[in-house]
Amino acid sequence: MKLNVKAVNFETAERLEKYIEKKTRRYEKLLSPSAELEIRMTVVKPETNLNKETAIRIMGMGTELFAQKVCDTFEQGIDECLEALDKQLEKHKDR
Fold first, then answer.
1. pTM surpassing 0.85?
2. What are the percentages of helix, strand and coil residues in the chain, rounded to 5?
3. What is the pLDDT of residue 46?
4. How far apart are CA 16 and CA 12, in angstroms?
């Protein structure tokens, strides 16, 4: 599995990168080696709460799965997106 992390309008901290690696590690077992997991994080409006937009896309399984959340922190956004993708993966496997 290929992991691509894109940060828009900010630089990622090492702590955030490690958090992403830890949370996405389990997908290495679920997805094929040719699958791609793309995480895009954007600071929407720096002066407001709920300004961190996180979007995660999984490609290469014969279909494309996508989840997008706007939260107070990127960690929360990653958790909520991965939870939504887990539900989508479950539905995809049932088909």
1. yes
2. 40, 30, 30
3. 72
4. 6
The pLDDT, as a whole number, for residue 17 is: 94
What are the C-alpha distances in Å from 9 to residues 40, 48, 78, 91? 11, 15, 17, 34
- Say which residues have a Cβ less than 8 Å from residue 7's Cβ, sequence separation at least 6: 41, 42
Tell the residue number behind the tokens 């909520």, with chain if given: 80
Q: Is 88 exposed, middle or buried (0-12, 13-18, 19+ CB in 10 A)?
A: middle
Q: Which two tokens stand for residue 70?
A: 């706007």
- Domains in the chain, ordered, with CATH? 2-94 (3.30.160.100)
